[in-house]
Amino acid sequence: xxxxxxxxxxxxxxxxxxxxxxxxxxxxxxxxxxxxxxxxxxxxxxxxxxxxxxxxxxxxxxxxxxxxxxxxxxxxxxxxxxxxxxxxxxxxxxxxxxxxxxxxxxxxxxxxxxxxxxxxxxxxxxxxxxxxxxxxxxxxxxxxxxxxxxxxxxxxxxxxxxxxxxxxxxxxxxxxxxxxxxxxxxxxxxxxxx
Length: 194
Known about the structure:
This protein is α/β, with parallel strands linked by helices.
């Protein structure tokens, strides 16, 4: 269940749906609406496990029209022990490394697919956030240290983000990057319209 952590270069931190010409015009909200429409057209479902974003990611995914056909639900597992009790993150992993770790993000994304199964069918995509929004460090991790997990039938990965700004800015950017991570995972191509 280990995730693959990586640092996202600056140019990867902008949504892949944006062209250079549109970077100033396109918003994360537009990306979300396009993503939800694409998932609905493909008949794919999504489940969310959030820690530092505290429900903001699920709110973003459910904002566009048509979200009810895609988003199965979201779980806010802010307390460390709930990550294990509700989603099944390995207790030994949490005890050794704490909640802000790439493998925790990966296990949250994998686990929420099963935890929010409907009619015995797991979600097609699981996405998670865990990290430190600040203002103080947590478990030796500085504010802005964030891991986003994405899990599909093709595998699971964790993306390491190093963000800066206020607590609310870090949370908002985490949501934006989580949307982009799902876009990357499903291979959405704006030019092809799907």
